[in-house]
Every structure is written in structure tokens, then in C-alpha cells.
Amino acid sequence: RKLKILSSKFISAQEERREQAAKLHGEIITLKERITKTAENERYVQGLSENTVQAEYKRLKSLIDHAFLFDTHRTECSFLEFKISIPENQNEKKPYIYCSRLETKYMVQMGESPAGNARRIVNFIRKFYQLNINHQKRLERLGTELSAAKKALKEHNPYGSQIKVLTSDVEKLRKGLNV
């Protein structure tokens, strides 16, 4: 009976591993697409002149204030070719915006000061190259997790053969008692 319980737990654990492996595989595909689009966005950002970035900074300084961050009905505005949008459920204590380009959203934390918020967006652009470095690290971690999950899926139920042997022994004993 205990072996049947252990076998059932093993089978349940394997099913969870299958689901985890499928989820990880999906995350890897999504992340690879994001890496590709982020690389395209990075090339765009690298081509921007400092004068262009500073001009946009000056424009944004007066725009991204506290009222802007909590106005979910506001139409999208832009910074260079990045669309700036406000999340539907804005975090009151830690507000943020989405900057998106090529259908890829990037979250940027905001604060109280409009000039500080504009500076955060400029810093986001200047440090854009770090995004794919972080994405690559995450991709490696997901790959490692997926490999471990696949390896675990190759394990066979160690209790199945024991159950068969014991069931056979019990049948032999029962036949011996009936004689």
C-alpha cells in the first residue's frame, strides 16, 4: 500500500515537472523574441545623438508629473520613438510607466519630481544595453531549469517494478494458503 502511495506521488511529481517544462519552454520562446526586439531597439538607441536625447529630456521635464502618472485615461505620449503609457493599476507608492517600441514594453520606475522622472527615462535610454545582458542571464537560468526538468522527466517510476514483484509474491502466498 505504501509503495502505491509513493508511486502515485512520483507520477504526480512527474506531471508537475512536465507542466513546469512546458511553462519554461514557453518562457524561453517569449524571452528569445524579447531579446531580438530589444536588440533592434538597442541599435536604434545607439544611433541617437546626445542633442536629440537632451531636447526630448527638456520636453518631458514639464510633462511627466504626478498627475500624469495617475491619469489612466490619458492618451499615450512618446519619447523619441518609444510610446509612454500608464499602467491601468498604477502603484501609488512606487509609480511607473511603460516605454514601448516594436511591441515590446519596458517598465521604468517614476518618482515625485517631473524633472527626476524625465531623467529616469533618459537614464533608461542610456543604459538600454544592460537590458539584453540581463535578458541573456535570465535565458541561461531558464535553460538550466529546463534541462533539469527534462532530466528529471527521464527518471522511471522506481516503485512500479517493486509493486509488481510484491504483488506476484502475495499471489504466490495466497495460492500456497489455498492448497
What is the C-alpha radius of gyration, as a whole number of Å? Answer: 28 Å
Q: How many strands? A: 4
Order of helical and strand elements: HHHEEEEHHH
Number of helices: 6
- Arithmetic mean pLDDT: 86
Sheet with the most strands?
4 strands, antiparallel
In helices, the fraction of residues equals 55-70%
**What form results from the Cα inertia axes?**
elongated
Through-space gap between termini: 26 Å
Classification by helices and strands: alpha+beta
Low-confidence stretches are none
Note the beta-strand portion.
Answer: 5-15%
What is the spatial order of strands in the main beta sheet?
1-2-3-4
Could you give the topology of this structure?
Layout lengths: L1 H45 L3 H12 L4 H4 L7 E3 L2 E4 L10 E6 L2 E6 L4 H13 L2 H25 L4 H21 L1
Antiparallel strand pairs: 1-2, 2-3, 3-4
Helix pairs in contact: 1-5, 1-6, 2-4
What does this structure look like?
- Helix 1 runs antiparallel to helix 5 and helix 2 (50-61) runs antiparallel to helix 4.
- The chain has helices spanning 2-46, 50-61, 66-69, 114-126, 129-153, 158-178, and strands at residues 77-79, 82-85, 96-101, 104-109.
- The chain has 179 residues and is of the alpha+beta class.
- It has a 4-stranded antiparallel sheet.
Keywords:
179 residues, alpha+beta, four-stranded antiparallel sheet, 6 helices, 11% strand
